């Protein structure tokens, strides 16, 4: 699994909607990729914040916008590799 796939599955990962294989792949990627680990942490907090304030799941379009932003952030990062890589 690469970063882009991880981001695609991230929403389902957070919601525990992935099957065992995908979940294992995602967890393995998260163990080895600091960037995605940070993205997961941020996304989970954002989703929990929404859930906490709205008491209902994030509407799909809003989620898509959120993940679109995250994907863009990841691809921007690739143009400018983080230090130490
Ligand atoms: Zn990654």
UniProtKB/TrEMBL annotation:
Domain Putative zinc-finger positions: 3-37
InterPro entries: Anti_sigma_zinc_sf, Znf_put
One Pfam assignment: zf-HC2
Protein name: Putative zinc-finger domain-containing protein
Organism: Bellilinea caldifistulae
């Amino acid at each position: 699994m690469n970063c882009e796939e991880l981001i695609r599955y991230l929403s389902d990962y957070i919601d525990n909607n992935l099957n065992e294989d995908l979940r294992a792949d995602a967890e393995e990627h998260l163990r080895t990729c600091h960037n995605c680990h940070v993205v997961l942490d941020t996304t989970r907090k954002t989703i929990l914040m929404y859930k906490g304030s709205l008491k209902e799941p994030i509407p799909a379009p809003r989620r898509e916008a959120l993940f679109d932003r995250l994907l863009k952030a990841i691809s921007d990062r690739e143009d400018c590799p983080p230090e130490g890589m």
